[in-house]
Amino acid sequence: MGLIAISETPLHVLAVDDSNLDRKLIERLLKTFSYHVTAVDSGSKALEFLGLKDVEKMEKISSFSPNPEVEVNMVITDYCMPGMTGFELLKKIKESKSLKDIPVVIMSSDNIPARINRCLEEGAEEFFLKPVRLSDVGKLKPYLSKNERKTTEEEECVSNDNSRATYNDDHNDDDDDEVEASADEDEQIQMLRKTIEEQCVLNDNSRAMHNDDHKDDDEVEAWSDEDEQTQRFSKDQSC
Description:
alpha/beta; 5-stranded parallel β-sheet; two-stranded parallel sheet; 7 helices
């Protein structure tokens, strides 16, 4: 079963996405921040990794005291997936007594306000639009434990009060800087995405060549067997 881990070991993020390309991209971005990442391609596999089925059975026993074998600090999941959607996975986690404190972040290619609000109301910490950027991943750390989240929110309130007076004066310059930084980051993400896509193609081609080589070997072996049988038949006929 999975519970929040608070330790000096690398923070563990469970990434869920049925797209091989998007899954590798979010895994690469998370590792940039030194997170330990486990990536799975479906909501059901995420539940299996979290041990949710075992949790649901054991939570019925009042004396149950969890002793987690798997420590997960956060789940980040795609919204649209076959079988179990990211929203359904979110609900499963938040309905579990033992797992409900694990922060969940939703990703989606569709900017649909009603969908975003529904996920946030159900307990999602953030809703990121794809492609997820490095700056998005940078927002995750405050959510990785309740204490960190509470402290960070208090610090942000103080910081916002202190900076509000100077914000208006610098607002125009900041907007220009943010637009430029956002454009640079989008370009970097597109390059990274292209690199990962090329690697996936190379891996697919390599697997295809490997399968073809095995197929050729099987055909050669079959031909050898057939030749041997033909020779035997000719020999029997001559006798």
